[in-house]
């Protein structure tokens, strides 16, 4: 595990312990009982028919350890509205506060404003966070393979599906892919996506060729989500040529004056006027 990731996970364990003291499980269960069913995140982004398009999971992102402050005048709901108006299939909402400037409360606010399903983008390491995510209105959660053991991944997947949420299981290293490959699609195929993060957390550099190389080792790329380093229509075309039709994009959109217009431009066909 890279040093930065190790540091984040150490802090996250402290954060989760504090959250459990402040908001006991029975409170989370009560909140969930008052919610309707989650929106179908998997169905929103997976399209087995159209091979000429890309579904974008548009990310609401204030800052990151690698880029620093990405957007100073930050309004999570306004950005999500702009994404919805300009072709996003789903929303990714960063909720880690210390390292990414996010807030858990933003999920409910976004879902109240637009009809798209929302992914809670955070470092999920404990079952409590899965309950917490659903209670906050999340329709999907992120699991990072490099942060978890196989047993932890399986347990968290089962709990997420029991709560009706989609899991985005993310890998970077090919070794991590081999380790978790038997668990992709567990326990139900319609609730599981495979994310390939192009960002190397050791060097903090991104290269979209990374997910293309990994995709070549997979028999089925219909559930693959390319993450990081994506900024142009040509990037999306290159991903499609490798069978990847879902992309999670945040930094390149949020750093633009108008994130919605940036998304519209990203989705423009290469070579179009």
Question: What does the model show?
Answer:
- There is one protein chain.
- 44% of the residues are buried.
- This protein starts with a helix and ends in a 7-residue tail after the last helix.
- Strands 1-4-5-6-7-8-11-12 form an eight-stranded parallel β-barrel, surrounded by six helices. The protein has a two-stranded antiparallel ribbon with strand order 2-3.
- Helix 4 runs parallel beside helix 6 (106-113).
- It has 273 residues and is α/β, with parallel strands linked by helices.
- It has a single domain (3-266), classed as TIM Barrel (Alpha-Beta Barrel).
- It contains 13 helices and twelve strands.
- 41% of the residues lie in helices and 18% in strands.
- The model has no long low-confidence stretch (mean pLDDT 94).
The domain count comes to 1
Question: Largest sheet, if any?
Answer: 8 strands, parallel, barrel
Report the radius of gyration as a whole number of Å.
17 Å
The fold-level CATH name is TIM Barrel
DSSP strand tally: 12
Query: What is the count of helical runs?
Result: 13
Distance between the termini: 45 Å
CATH superfamily: Aldolase class I
The CATH architecture name reads Alpha-Beta Barrel
CATH class: Alpha Beta
Shape: globular
pLDDT averaged residue by residue:
94
Widest β-sheet, arrangement of strands:
1-4-5-6-7-8-11-12
Low-confidence stretches: none
């Amino acid at each position: 595990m890279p040093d930065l990731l190790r540091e984040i996970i150490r802090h996250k364990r402290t954060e989760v312990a504090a959250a459990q003291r402040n908001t006991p499980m029975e409170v989370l269960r009560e909140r969930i009982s008052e919610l309707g069913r989650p929106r179908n995140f998997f169905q929103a982004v997976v399209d087995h028919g159209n091979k000429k398009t890309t579904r974008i999971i548009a990310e609401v992102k204030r800052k990151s350890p690698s880029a620093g402050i990405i957007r100073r005048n930050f309004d999570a709901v306004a950005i999500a509205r702009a994404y919805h108006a300009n072709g996003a299939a789903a929303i990714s909402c960063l909720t880690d506060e210390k390292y990414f400037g996010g807030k858990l409360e933003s999920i409910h606010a976004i879902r109240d404003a637009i009809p798209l399903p929302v992914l809670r983008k955070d470092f999920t390491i404990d079952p409590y966070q899965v309950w917490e995510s659903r209670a906050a209105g999340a329709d999907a959660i992120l699991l990072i393979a490099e942060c978890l053991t196989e047993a932890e991944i399986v347990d968290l997947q089962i709990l997420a599906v029991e709560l009706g949420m989609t899991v985005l299981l993310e890998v970077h290293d090919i070794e991590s892919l081999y380790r978790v490959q038997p668990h992709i699609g567990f326990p139900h195929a319609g609730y599981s996506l495979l994310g390939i993060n192009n960002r190397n957390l050791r060097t903090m550099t991104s290269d979209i060729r990374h997910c293309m190389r990994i995709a070549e080792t997979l028999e089925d790329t219909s559930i693959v989500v390319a993450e990081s380093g994506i900024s142009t229509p040509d990037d999306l075309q290159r991903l499609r040529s490798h069978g990847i039709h879902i992309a999670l994009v945040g930094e390149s959109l949020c750093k633009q004056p108008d994130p919605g217009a940036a998304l519209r431009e990203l989705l423009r066909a290469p070579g179009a006027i």
